[in-house]
Design brief:
Blueprint (H helix, E strand, L loop, with lengths): L1 H4 L4 E6 L6 H12 L6 E7 L6 E5 L6 E7 L2 H7 L4 E7 L9 H7 E10 L3 H9 L2 E3 L4 E4 L15 E5 L3 H11 L4 E5 L15 E3 L9 H19 L9 E2 L3 E4 L3 H12 L9 E3 L1 H8 L7 E4 L3 E3 L1 H11 L4 E4 L5 E6 L2 E6 L4 E5 L1 E4 L17 E11 L9 E3 L3 E2 L6 E5 L12 H15 L12 E8 L6 E6 L15 E9 L5 H17 L7 H7 L3 H6 L12
Helix pairs in contact: 6-10, 6-12, 7-12
InterPro entries: FAD-dep_OxRdtase (IPR006076), FAD/NAD-bd_sf (IPR036188), tRNA_S-uridine_synth_MnmC_C (IPR017610)
EC number: 2.1.1.61
Organism: Massilia terrae
Length: 550
């Protein structure tokens, strides 16, 4: 393998059985020890001892990527977006031979394969797909089927518009790959819009059918927990606490449905655990009439501190332009220019990433996207007027443990543009808080205090991550891959109330896509996030009201 990877910019290895990880660790060490190693090594391995799905494991070395896929071999390969240079097949004698076709689909033109213990039918299936064996357990890929050419490395220059949680994550993930990034922010400093809240919470979803939103949030949440450690950690470089989140059941029916999910034993206790009323109440020191889900690794963080940590990690590759005011996009010499209101060019690059939240509606290129802007008012409650909470408590609303003498409660979802604090929204937050605490006198006479922010929400409540569609040029396009796109223009939009959770994995997905690397999510989940999905949906049905994200 070492001779095969030398002289390459990137190299991707697939291992059919991660096992205890010793084989992958040896491979990573061999890469570190080889002075002629490729600049980036991507390792993709099947690991069945995790929750279902693809799991990207952040590495301390920016040149390494590790993906662990928890799925049957043929299913995982069918959903993998990658080009495999070296393939190690072992421990799969009982897997059947259906994996051969999806494996050949993603094998590089000169891929090598090493096998150990494959069944005769598996070897025959691989040979039928173009793998030529030498009789000693090794093969090379010699299919005559045309291969898509390997895309050249892109010019590693980009402009990111927006210095909130989405834009800061994009800057960090690109700078980690050696990109030069210009960050353009209309305010004088980062995190001045929705990312400026005192506290945001992070927690996963659970569902009986493990639907697409559940799978996506789980992947993003698990990645974020590990990613934050690479930039300093929650409670250290990042202000906050991984204190746990308790999501109380709404009513008896909701509790019964949760018990049915818990009885299936799908989730390990460190991820999610159902607590009956007695155990939940003892933990809180408050009534928890129907019980609730405990997410022990969840918690809260101040989004602005997350932004600061991500931008600090960019180092000298980041050129930040704060106080830019309103800007527009223009094309010049095959690249994008960001131009301010006075006509000055703030930056020029072949790649632009719009991570501007509600501001995306001001750009003609993104104005047709069906993004609603929701007003969210958070109330700041003096901690002494509330019970001391050991963790984040939520149901229809949430309340955080005290920080700097304040607990955050909220947030409202209002369809109006009023940026000012108002008593009616405060009263709504207090009513939900009292119901959450089962205390009609909690925060009595709490003065109006808090913050208003605006989040963007798509009709399906999922983010928009990837190349932005050109609605005007779409014509009668019926397939996602055929939707015309604006050249070099990408979006990280529509994070709604889960910006903390979405931002790291969304930025990693976009950066991997730009680099032509293996993607960290299953192909059908990547498609579910593609902004172009709304081009296709626009001609299938008229747009209806956008349900409120909760």
């Amino acid at each position: 393998m070492l001779a095969h990877w030398r002289g390459r910019e990137r190299y991707t290895v697939f291992d059919s059985a991660y096992g205890d990880g010793s084989g992958v660790r040896a491979l990573l060490q061999a890469w570190r020890d080889d002075p002629q190693r490729p600049a980036r090594l991507h390792v993709v391995a099947i690991a069945r001892d995790r929750m279902p799905g693809f799991h990207r494991i952040p590495q301390a070395d920016a040149g390494l990527t590790l993906d662990l896929l928890s799925a049957p071999l043929d299913t995982a390969l069918a959903q993998l977006s990658a080009r495999l240079d070296f393939i190690r097949l072992h421990g799969i004698a009982d897997e059947g031979a259906a994996f051969a076709r999806p494996l050949a689909r993603i094998a590089a033109a000169d891929a090598l394969l090493a096998e150990d213990g494959l069944a005769a039918e598996q070897l025959d299936a691989l040979a039928a797909q173009g793998f030529v064996f030498d009789g000693a357990g090794r093969a090379h890929f010699a299919s005559r089927k045309p291969r898509l050419p390997v895309a050249p490395a892109p010019p590693r220059r980009a402009i990111v518009i927006g210095a909130g949680i989405a834009g800061a994550a994009a800057c960090e993930r690109l700078c980690a790959r050696g990109w030069q990034v210009t960050l353009v922010e209309r305010h004088g400093r980062p995190a001045m819009e929705a990312s400026g809240n005192h506290a945001g919470i992070f927690m996963p979803l659970v569902s009986r059918d493990d639907n697409i939103p559940t799978r996506l949030v789980r992947a993003a949440y698990l990645y974020a927990l590990q990613y934050w450690d690479t930039i300093g950690g929650i409670g250290r470089a990042i202000e906050g606490a991984a204190c746990g989140v308790l999501q109380l059941a709404r009513d008896a029916a909701h509790a019964q449905a949760a018990r049915a999910i818990a009885a299936e034993g799908r989730y390990p206790p460190e991820f999610a655990r159902w607590l009956e009323a007695g155990e939940a109440g003892a933990m809180l020191g408050l009534p928890a009439l129907e019980g609730g889900w405990l997410f022990p690794q969840g918690g809260w963080a101040r989004p602005g501190s997350v932004c600061d940590a991500m931008l600090a990690a960019c180092g000298g590759r980041l050129d930040a332009r704060f106080g830019a005011g309103s800007v527009r996009l223009e094309r010049a010499d095959g690249e994008w220019q960001v131009v301010d209101a006075g006509g000055a060019v703030l930056g020029q690059a072949p790649t632009v990433i719009l991570a501007s939240g509600a501001g995306a509606r001001d750009f003609p290129q993104t104005a047709p996207l069906p993004l609603d802007v929701l007003r969210g008012q958070v109330s700041h409650i003096v901690a002494d007027t509330l019970p001391a909470l050991p963790l984040v408590l939520c149901r229809e609303a949430y309340v955080t443990p005290a920080s700097h003498g304040i607990c955050c409660a909220g947030a409202t979802y209002d369809l109006d543009p009023d940026p000012a604090l108002r008593q009616s929204s405060h009263d709504d937050n207090l009513a939900k808080l009292r119901a959450l605490l089962s205390d009609p006198l909690a925060a009595a006479d709490a003065p109006l205090a808090g913050r208003v922010g605006f989040r963007t929400v798509a009709p399906d409540r999922l983010p928009l991550i990837g190349r932005l569609p050109d609605f005007d040029a779409a014509g009668g396009t019926e397939r996602l891959r055929d939707v015309p796109r604006h050249p070099g223009l990408y979006g990280l939009l529509g994070y709604a109330s889960r910006g903390l959770t979405w931002a790291p994995l969304a930025a990693e997905l976009l950066a991997a896509s730009l680099e032509g690397e293996p993607l960290p999510l299953e192909a059908n989940l990547v498609d579910a996030l593609d902004p172009a999905r709304f081009v296709l949906r626009a001609r299938r049905a008229p747009r209806g009201p956008n349900p409120v994200y909760d």
